[in-house]
Design brief:
7 strands, globular, S-adenosyl-L-methionine-dependent methyltransferase, seven-stranded mixed β-sheet, Rossmann fold, methyltransferase, alpha/beta
């Protein structure tokens, strides 16, 4: 739930935890059938890589492959990193500085609060462009909206969705992004996989991790300032709402859904 250009240490720590939570619910860090290619050696691109947890994990595991990460904010490791990992500071909404048909696997995740609908069209087209025929493109994110949540959590999350909507970002688009993906040229069948869990103690260990991440976010200085302003309440009133979240999660079953889409690039007709 972070404001996605936040570079605070706490925000980066939450992004690391969130990576492993997603890998846990999907039982993998990716869903495209690229394991054999990664073992043998291939070229991988992750755009909007952030703190690069995904890239650090894969580049350490698949030493025969070479990985590239692109992000506008250089919060990725500058010096201590695997030898087969390279970072490039760039705005991914500009044309990528790579040749056509360069990568075996391209990936973007957790960017639903960053791109407008039109920017998604461009980003997807760029991923397809730089992916080799026979290579795979994977997009992943979360359904930004809950089912079964309590009134406090709903009020807080609705305020977040509204703030991004005012910036021209449709936060609900990610859940149906396969409809845009399918419109790209030279793309095979778009596969879709969903995983869900319950927020809070009713969701077991995963639910408790997500509860702790959510509450930690709402207690961050940035969240307190901007969400209380959006709600038109004092920071003290906002903090009191957040204090009551733990008890609310015990009484509710707020369903959190994550989704991945992947497709293979076809030969040009």
């Amino acid at each position: 739930m972070d404001f996605y250009l936040s570079t605070s240490i706490d925000a980066i720590d939450r992004s690391h935890i969130y990576h492993f939570l997603r890998a846990c619910i999907f039982q993998s860090s990716f869903s495209s059938p690229v394991e054999d290619k990664l073992i043998q050696g291939c070229k991988v691109l992750d755009i909007g890589c952030g703190a690069a947890t995904w890239l650090l994990e894969l580049s350490t595991k698949y030493k025969n492959s070479y990985f590239y990460g692109v992000d506008i904010k250089p919060i990725y490791p500058q010096e201590i990193k695997p030898y087969n990992l390279e970072f490039i500071k760039a705005d991914v909404t500009d044309r990528l500085s790579f040749n056509d048909d360069e990568f075996d696997f391209t990936h973007v995740e957790f960017m639903s609060f960053v791109f407008t609908s039109n920017q998604w069209d461009f980003v997807l087209s760029e991923l397809v462009r730089v992916t080799k025929p026979g290579g795979y493109i994977e997009v992943a994110g979360r359904r930004n909206g809950y089912v079964g949540e309590g009134p406090i959590f709903r009020k807080l999350t609705d305020a977040i969705w509204l703030m991004y909507s005012k910036q021209g970002i449709d936060v609900k688009l990610m859940y149906n992004l396969d409809s845009k993906f399918e419109l790209q040229p030279n793309i095979g069948k778009v596969h879709r996989i969903e995983k869900d869990f319950i927020t809070g103690p009713n969701g077991g260990k995963i639910g408790l991790v997500w509860q702790d991440m959510s509450i930690a976010y709402f207690k961050s200085k940035l969240a307190i300032q901007v969400i209380s302003k959006e709600l038109g309440i004092s920071e003290e009133e906002f903090n009191n709402m957040v204090k009551n979240l733990t008890e609310e999660f015990k009484q509710t079953r707020a369903e959190c859904v994550h989704v991945r889409f992947w497709a293979q690039k076809q030969l040009s007709e």
